[in-house]
Amino acid sequence: MLKNFEKPKSEDKDALKAEIKELKERLKMQQQLIRDAKLPVLVLVEGWAAAGKGSLINEWISEIDPRFYNVVSPVVLPEKEERYPFLYQYAKSIPENGKIMFMDSGWMEGAVRKYLRRDITKDQYKARIRSVNEFERQLRDAGYLVLKIFVHISKEEQFRRISALREDPATEWRVTEDDLWQHREYDKFLETYNQFMEKTEEAAKWHIMDGSRRKMSVRDSLKLLVKKIDKALEEGKYNGEPFEEDFPLLSMPKLAEVDLSPTIEDEEYKKQLKKLQKRLSELHNIIYRKKIPVILCYEGWDAAGKGGNIRRVAYPLDPRGFDVMPIASPLPHELARQYLWRFWIRLPRTGHVAIFDRTWYGRVMVERLEGFCTENDWKRAYNEINEFERQLTDWGAVVLKFWIHIDPETQLARFTDRQNTPEKQWKITEEDWRNRDKWPQYEVAVDEMLEKTSTENAPWFIIESNDKKYARIRTLEIIVDALERACEEQLERGLV
């Protein structure tokens, strides 16, 4: 890696110039092929301050169509100012199918600087490395070409460039305190960059460019980019075996084994509802002050009572501190990205609550059964979802998942009531009846989903909802208990 990097020998400038021109033309031609093949390309450019990352990107984009690429430079924020998970700012920026995204510094810089500043612990740093490997693998498996480049210069070369920038009033602003700190701690950064690169090559290899030889780095990086695009266009989407990790799973009953007889009397319901909603309102204030994010996930049978359940949970919350996310069929710009993207961009800030009415679990239910994704896609999704939810809980989120459960007879009665009641008819569609005919297939898929994704950090709860009022109280009890425990655990760790 960086420690063993050998500088290439000088080459003829005119020959380099001619080769660069030819490679730019090839990249320009490839852009149309990328669009036709709907190949998403993400090029991550990391490297030393003043190494020339921006100049390199400018050379790449000089001849290609600006409608079909984007350049992103994620801001590296102090940890206390970050309100979202570590990968949020990178995940939300991934390109659509058929487009190229060039990222000027990204998850490598976002992890290494925090670690060397001791803003995050060693364990948190390790978790970020694991998240990076998961993120890159998920992109690769979804058909993305991920190309990672590190622009390398020596400490002496960096000193010369930083000095030149600071001496010119027009460019002095480009040198930040972080850049100067990196230069002072060059050896420490070199060691950490090297380790990070060695530990994040599972799905996408690192490629080192010599930033001290600008023309050669432009030629070499263009040659690499053109070669990788040609290979990706030739081979098509990655179709390897689904990756599986042993997550600590909770034992879950089959849906057919769940006793749906529990009920609650009206007076007891009113009493418990008032009590629990009052406590939830109090806890909402506490989690806001403690900056604990909360993610509540609702899935369940049609007519099971998800909407009414959500309303009782949302009612006591401060409207400034929560959002309900109704998830429908993905829109075209959502279908054009990795399937978790539309959930990454909907995550709550710290201290806020996000309630998802339908979730990323559509991948292993409706998309699986309706043929909207391949068998490899939905089989791979169990592990991807577990990884995604672990990243959320590593961030500090409380993640609770509810399957609102009824039996077929109760569903039929509710469908019939909706069909025969004018003011309720909008709630029933032909698709609902069609899905009901597939109850046995959906039950098999849900049982497998519960079995493979109810983890210790993000558990599933099957909510008995033949009696909607009982289901609401049961859900509120689970939420209140989980939030109280989260606040207590934070207090025990001294994070107040």
CATH architecture of the largest domain: 3-Layer(aba) Sandwich
Might you state the CATH topology name of the largest domain?
A: Rossmann fold
Assign a percent range to the helix content: 40-55%
Secondary structure tally: strands: 10
Q: What is the rounded Rg?
A: 26 Å
Helix tally? 19
What structural category do the secondary elements indicate? alpha/beta
Largest sheet: 5 strands, parallel
Q: What number of structural domains do the residues give?
A: 2
**Shape summary:** elongated
N-to-C terminal Cα separation, in Å?
41 Å
> Would you list the SSEs in sequence order as H and E?
HEHEHEHHEHHHEHHEHEHHEHHEHHHEH
Uncertain runs with pLDDT below 50, 5 residues or more?
Answer: none
Proportion of residues in β-strands: 5-15%
> What name goes with the CATH superfamily of the largest domain?
P-loop containing nucleotide triphosphate hydrolases
Indicate the multimeric state. Answer: single chain
- Top-tier CATH class of the largest domain: Alpha Beta
Structure description:
It is built from 19 helices and 10 strands. The protein has about 500 residues and is of the alpha/beta class. It folds into 2 domains: about 1-235, Rossmann fold, CATH 3.40.50.300; about 255-490, Rossmann fold. Helix 1 packs parallel to helix 9 and helix 4 (about 105-115) crosses helix 8. The longest helix is centred in the N-terminal third of the chain and has 25 residues, at about 15-35. The protein is elongated, with a radius of gyration of 26 Å.
